[in-house]
Amino acid sequence: ILLNHKRKSCDGVSLAFYLMWSLGDLFNLAGALMEDLILTAILLPLYYILTDCVVLLQFYIYRNNHVCSCAVSTHAADEESALITANACSVDDNNDLHH
Fold it and tell me: Which whole-number Å values give the CA distances from 30 to 43, 49, 50, 85, in the listed order?
């Protein structure tokens, strides 16, 4: 969640995978409630569902943001084009990527 927030992107996380994961958390909660398990066994899936909602909200908010790919091609034509490609993104002191 924090990394997505710092990058303002959910790149690298599959939405389909996360939806399936969230469905599993919902079933986990349903099972805990149906079996009348102890409070901690109910609170844990509630916490998971809360974090799932935060990540799904991030998917929605950051849906058009993409992390800049700062990898430099090893097949650069010359040194100057490699430097231009490397400077397409800048990295600040906190190692955060910026466009």
Answer: 12, 12, 15, 51
